[in-house]
Amino acid sequence: MDTLRMIHQVVAHPYQFYHDIQGRQRIAWFQGVLIVLLTFAAKMISILITGYAFQNREPHEISAFHEFIWLVVPWLTWCISNWGVSTIMDGEGKFKEIFVGSAFALAPYMLFMIPVTLLTLVLSLDEASTFKLLQQFIILWVAWLILLKIKILHDFELRKVVFITVISIIGVGIIWFVGILLFGISNQFVSFIVDMLKELRLRA
């Protein structure tokens, strides 16, 4: 399927989109990666063009690396957790479909966050509620697409969709906890090896 057509379809006809991406050779891994990268680009541009009155960070406090991590890590761990939980609960969706489907759920953010952010150049702080409302609408749109993806790809009823979503979020928390724990242990291990080598060098 053509990527541009898929972006239009997920925004205009999301039900049809998630039905269409099921099956062999209908989607490609690179499409999911591309959408995530474009979403990251939209996020960075939005941060950089935000009106001065609406900025809550100094330019030197903005890190592209940190922004990338805060986008990719939650998205990727969500894909892994949702796939694992759905598989246990007899979901029909494959990991490739979850990967690409979750990426295309970010399409509203990718398409509309920059135009919405441009409003900060003409709005006053007294009208900040309008900007925040539009931001929240985009986030809710993305969340709705994610829930719709779970329902259609796995063929779950609404009650089960809610249950799977909650368990998947808990799974994301567990993945983060284990990742942080392993990172801390590996840091301590590396520090121990370095200290031991320094001690051996001093005694040699």
Task: Explain what the structure shows.
By secondary structure, the protein is mainly α. The protein has one domain. Helices cover 77% and strands 0% of the residues. The protein has eight helices and no strands. It has helices spanning 3-12, 14-20, 29-49, 64-88, 95-104, 107-118, 128-154, 158-203. The longest helix is centred in the C-terminal third of the chain and has 46 residues, at 158-203. The chain is globular. The termini are far apart.
Question: How is the main sheet built?
Answer: none
Q: Tell me the domain tally.
A: 1
| Distance between the amino and carboxyl termini | 65 Å
Helix content: over 70%
What structural class do you assign from the helix and strand content?
Answer: mainly alpha
Number of strands: 0
How do the helices and strands follow one another from N- to C-terminus?
HHHHHHHH
Shape: globular
Number of H/I helices: 8
In what range is the share of β-strand residues?
under 5%
State the low-pLDDT regions, or none.
none
Cα radius of gyration in angstroms:
21 Å
